[in-house]
Every structure is written in structure tokens, then in C-alpha cells.
Amino acid sequence: MAVLLGVDTGGTYTDAVLIRDETEVIATAKALTTRADLAVGVGKAVSAVLAQSGVAAEKIAMASLSTTLATNALVEGQGGRVALIYVGFRAADLETHGLSAALRGDPRLLLSGGHDHAGAEVAPLDEPALIAFLETHKAEVSGFAVASQFATRNPAHEQRVAELVAEVTGRPVSASHSLSAKLNGPKRALTALLNARLIGMIDRLIGRAEDQLRHLGIHAPLMVVRGDGALMSSAQARERPIETILSGPAASLVGARWLTGAETALVSDIGGTTTDVALLRDGRPAIDPAGAQVGPYRTMVEAVAMRTHGLGGDSEVHFTSEGLTAGVTLGPKRLLPISLIAVDAPEVVHSALDAQLRRSVVAEHDGRFVRAVVVQGAEGLAPREMALLERIGGDVWPLGDVLRNRVDQSALARLVARGLVQLAGVTPTDASHVAGHLCAWDAGAARKALTLFGRKRGGSGMRFCPDPDDLAQIILDRLTDQTTLALLETAFAEETPGFDLPPEVLARHVLMQRGLSGHRGVLRIDAGLNLPVVGLGASAATYYPAVGERLGSEMILPANAHVANAIGAVVGRVIMRESATITVPNEGVFRLHLADGPQDFSTADRALAQGERALTEAARARAFTAGAAEIECHVTRDIRLADVEGREVFVEAALTVEASGRPRVAVG
């Protein structure tokens, strides 16, 4: 008997599950996610599931972790300060694929060098300029990213930059060619930049999680779920954290399939921060051919074809007013629910809300609170940011008590983006407490906060919604509406043949919306989903029945849906892919482009054979290092030929080798 442990760190809860022989759920448990140190929540969840099951820690044969940390960090604009070294590109290329925006003012160096499409050097690498840049910025950044022109055809300059970064700074470096074998330099640069930004966060999470497991007596190897649903070793995840974006959502798809046996369905997973929607087709999640997109970023990371929306149980509730009409909208940022922060600081929260309710006018920051996640050890902060962080200290404060001017608001936004400070305010979770759907935390504080929120005035001058029960229903109805749109967008994106408008436009189109309501006039319009929906997440049972009714679709809410991500983390496979291309720079020369540099051959067959051997060896080695057993390899060839005067001519080939196997486990 092998007992496997799956753990998922979500935005609000950390889940743990024990599965026996990959067939039976033994026990499940939840603990609040501890943002200051995620591993504390991991330890509490694992302790709880061990206590509930009675399984001895030494009996755990494998542990696996899925996490929304990287996904949420990108959605919320968090991550460390890093520097980009951009070799052989023009300044104008920084605007491509949102690279300049993603830098967010972090240092960057445009350096001469790079290669051409055939792998030949275009210009020598300017090492003196590079060394000067590294000396200038090594103390102010947590890591470096490097992208060189056509590095996938010849990585020599990226490799040399990585060597110098290590020698001069000792900081980690993310090289674009090691993250993707595809062309498109700016997109590879973006991927490397985001990888560098995430390294510190993921490294701390994994290191601390391993410490917690050892402290509990669990010495089994730790695996981590990738964004395509496959597993990799914790060491690999530390080097390539970008591959863990969409880790939690991908695990949920694997878990949905295991829980329901569904072959074809939309899967919607609602967490505290995001709602993730994907199509399960023929029992397998599709891989996004364009690369994973999270928030505004389109990366080159292989991941499930999933649409991630900043919509969850802890989404910020915004007051909107257009003309005489007032309303609410949700997200994309996450807030701590008032009901939760009131559990941590009841006197502060209730006292402040009571005082604010006694006033006749609602102030800008009423009903909102702030607390620091990290006070000591924060790096790279401007003086005003550091002063504000020290002012907040280790206490919970009404937001209006710590903001003294507009400049403080900008500093606060940067602290929140860095993950150093958390804001609390009204969320759907608070509305659920007021409506009686949840009773986990302080419903009284939630009622006071909704009462205060409802006193805001729209363009008519009237209070928006004085009754907190009515406002709670308005917020929950809005969550239903936005979840419906999220599902429709995914459905339109997966429709074949497609329509002539973007999915987000089609989902909101008046004909679609009237059709959902069963319009009956001169026209009869009916619309809805033609597939079942699998609803996952701790709050799915609360929110999703109304979504299924709205879409006219079967809503499947499986047992253990609240820990589907943790289940998916356990039952996945180790899968490693290695890719290479073969080009023809000159007649009779077939150039194989591998990670360690190009090789020339006199025939296509020889190049293909060597490519397959090299890639198979590399993929098998990576899979073994990741902990796979009984490894199987599958080779895919994509050969492009051209007809030249009645003769087939080799143009280019792409090779991919996939090595897969179940993780090695040891029965205790």
C-alpha cells in the first residue's frame, strides 16, 4: 500500500489530501493560507490530514505540491525586482508582447551581440558593458534575465552572459533558451523576465515546505505540479518557477478528471483570487499552442489552454456609478475579507466600523483595513515606501489612519504589488457570510462593512443599497454574472469553427445575453452551454448552482471538489519534453540546433537521427531526475518540404521528444 500526499496552496486556503494506491481518498483537510510564510499553512494542513487519517508520517511514499503562488503573483503584479539583459535587439523590441510594461521600471541593458537565424554570430558580445551593468545593479535586484537574438539557434551569448552574472553578482539568472526552444525573442525575453521575478518566491515556498514536511516526519521526495498538469521535482521547480504558473489550475483539471471520469466538459475552479476555466476534451486538458497567458502576460511556457480571470471569493467589490445608475463589479485584485481580518483583530475592526457607521458621510477609505505581511527584511524599497511600511508595523489599521496624502497611496500600491502589505475590504466572501451561506468567520463584521458600503451614493444622490441583505444578494448576483461570462468566453474560444469576433465580445453580445434569458418576442432566441460544467473549489457549492441555471447547463459538483487541486497534484505523471529544429543554411548542410549549440550534417536523415538521440537522452534524463519510473519516450517529427521543379526539397524540421512515467514511490 502506497499513501500519497497532495497539497495545494491557494489564495485563501491550503488543502491537503491523502490517497491510497491512487484509487481512494483517505482524508482531506484545510488550513488558512499564510501569506507571510506559505509553508506555515502547508504544515497546518498536512498536520490536520495526518491527524484525521491516523496515517503515520513515515508511511507517506510521495508528496506533491500544486500552487497558485506564481499565477497570483503575475495577476497581482507581484514578484522581486530583477534586471533584463537584452542581447542583439533594438530598443523598439521592448514594446513587443508587453515586455516594457512587464519591466515596471526595473533595470534593463540593451547589449550588442546575438546570432542570426542560422546560428551565426551577428556581432561579438559586449562584455565590458555587461560587467559594468552588473556591478552597478547587483545589489539592488534579486536576479537577472537574459534573452539573446536567435538564442534558440545558438545559445552561446546567453550562456556567456549567465557565466558572467554568476561570477560578478552571485544572483540567479534565467536564460530564455533554457525555458523555450521556440523563436520569438521578445516573447522569450518576457518569459525569462517573469521566471527571474518568481525565483525567490517559489524557492522560499519550496524550501520552507520541505522543512515543514521533514519537521512532521515526512521524508518522501517532494514533487511540484507544472502548468501543463505534469509533475517535476522540487529542484527543477526552483530553477524554472515560470513553469509553475497555472500549476494549481492544471492540477484541478487532472483532479476533475479523476473525480468525475468526465470525458468532455468545461471545468471551472473558483478560488480566493482567480477563477480558472478550461475545456476537458476526450479526458485530457488541451495544451495552449500559443503559450500560457496569465493576466496581461502571454508567455512561452507550455501549459493547459486555460483562461484565468481575476474573480474569486475574495475579489475586491468596487462601487460603480454611471449616470443615475449605481452598481458593483468584482476584481481583479484580491482583498482580505472583512470577516476574516476581524477574526485576527476584532477590537480594531469592530471599533473602526462602528465609528465609521456613526458618521453621516462615507469617507473614501471607510470599510477598508491594512496590515503588513513583511516588515523586517524588505529590500529595494524607496524611503517613502519604507516609512509607510514601518508606520503600519505589525498591527491591523483602518486604512484612513495610515494614509496621510495621495503620495502615500502610490507608495501603498507598490507595497501591495510587492506582496509586503495586504488590504482588507468587502468581498463576495463577506456577502456570503451576510447571506448565511458561510459561517466560518465574523459575520457581524461583514454585515457592518456591507451596511457601510451600501451607504455610498450614486449619481442620483441616493444611497446605493442601505439594506446589507439586499446588497449581499447584489454582490452574489454579480459573481454569477461574471462567472457566466468567464465560462462563455472559454466556450467561444474553443468553438470550431470559430466566429469572427473575439470571445470576450461574443460572450457579452446582446444576442447571447438575450438568448440566455430565453428571449420571446418577434424572435425566439435560446442560448446556453451544450456541455456540462464541473465546478471546483471550496465555494463552488455556494456559487455555482446559480451559474449552471443561468447557462442552462448541468452543473457537476463532485465530492471532494474542495480539494480537487490537491488530488490532481497526487495523481499526475512526470512528463518532460525536449525540442530542437533542423534548418538548411546552405545547400547540402543540415544544421541541428540543440541546447548546447548547433551541429552540421550532410544529410537530413543523419541530422534527424542525431536530434532524436540527443533529445531522447535529455528528456529521459530530466524525467529520471524529476523522479519518474518506467519512463516511456515518444518522438514527434514535423518536417516541412517544398516542391521545387517537381522535386521535394527539405526546408525545416521540428523534433519533440516526450518522456513520461509515474513518480517513483517507496512503500513504507
Biggest β-sheet: strands ordered side by side in the sheet: 3-2-1-4-9-10
- Integer average pLDDT: 90
Q: Give the number of helices.
A: 22
Oligomerization status of the protein chains: single chain
Provide a quick synopsis of the model.
This protein is an alpha/beta fold. The protein contains 22 helices and 31 strands. Helix 15 packs across helix 17.
Please give a structural write-up.
The chain is α/β, with parallel strands linked by helices. It is about 40% helix and about 25% strand. The radius of gyration is 26 Å and the shape is globular.
Jot down its keywords.
6-stranded mixed β-sheet; 31 strands; 668 residues; 22 helices; alpha/beta
Draw up the topology in text:
Elements lengths: L2 E7 L3 E8 L3 E9 L5 H16 L6 E8 L1 H7 L6 E6 L11 H5 L4 E4 L15 H11 L5 E6 L7 H13 L4 E3 H4 L5 H31 L6 E4 L5 E3 H6 L7 H14 L4 E6 L4 E7 L2 E2 L7 E2 L2 E2 L7 E4 L5 E8 L2 E10 L1 E2 H7 L1 H13 L10 E4 L10 H10 L4 E2 H4 L3 H12 L3 E5 L2 H8 L7 H12 L13 H27 L8 H6 L1 H7 L2 E2 L3 E2 L7 E4 L3 H12 L3 E2 L7 H8 L2 E13 L2 E6 L2 E5 L2 H22 L2 E17 L2 E17 L5
Parallel strand pairs: 1-4, 4-9, 5-6, 5-7, 7-8, 11-25, 19-22, 25-26
Antiparallel strand pairs: 1-2, 2-3, 9-10, 11-12, 12-13, 12-16, 14-15, 17-18, 20-21, 20-22, 23-24, 27-28, 27-31, 28-29, 30-31
